[in-house]
Here is the input.
Amino acid sequence: DSGVTQTPKHLITATGQRVTLRCSPRSGDLSVYWYQQSLDQGLQFLIQYYNGEERAKGNILERFSAQQFPDLHSELNLSSLELGDSALYFCASSLRQGDGYGYTFGSGTRLTVV
Amino acid sequence: EDQVTQSPEALRLQEGESSSLNCSYTVSGLRGLFWYRQDPGKGPEFLFTLYSAGEEKEKERLKATLTKKESFLHITAPKPEDSATYLCAVQAQGYQKVTFGTGTKLQVIP
Here is the structure.
């Protein structure tokens, strides 16, 4: 157990639907990162939050949004889902922002859009 | 834009057969280069951070080295439990984003 908790582990939904993925960071970590991993593209950075504030954005689609709550857990919202959104979604956390600290990753949410 | 290229894509070794994985990178001012291990169906597990050319770090049978353009992950006398995908990633100075390579899938045969 890495200390980063992601729920649900698996999600199957239809095209056009909306889903919410949840992440609880490791105790004491202030920074949360979301990554998408597909077979052909590897780990793609989506977005980062630090202590409740958005700090960096990657190739996140407009249909996707995220937030970090006062208790530091984070949610990634995916809407108007398409078949191509099927992937593993990982949350990671770290104590600080970058500074070369390694991230602690959760075990991911496997999203299947049918 | 930061780029990370890993080679080979896949590597099959006999138990005890040492080898190296390569990570070539392009970044405008390196803050850190990271190595992770990922087992199937799990999240990446942090192994090392390297900060400057010439730096080396070791953990059990793994040794990571860094030059100005690439990093190597040396695996000495690997065991079947070392089988995993090894990911390399870089972070540029002044940026939060960490860019990952697509990984090398290592299989160690008993």
User: Anything to note?
Assistant: The mean pLDDT of chain B is 94.
